[in-house]
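Suppose you are handed a protein chain with no further information: no name, no annotation, nothing but its sequence. What can you learn? This example shows the usual starting point.
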Amino acid sequence: MNNRDLTENEALVLNFLKKLETRKSSAELKAFYHEEIEQIEYPNAILKEKASRNLSEIMAASER
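A reasonable first move is to predict its three-dimensional structure. Written in structure tokens, the prediction is:
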């Protein structure tokens, strides 16, 4: 599949993944998130309890 065959959403996802690989800071990722985002992480092998994060918490975690 070449880039001309991608839908707008597919291209956005690929750009996000590329930015995750090459970024120098979390500020480069901010454009991909809505200002009212809520990330929910459910219990798993690393996190024992459900966690919820807003945009500033996601950005802070990205810096770590």
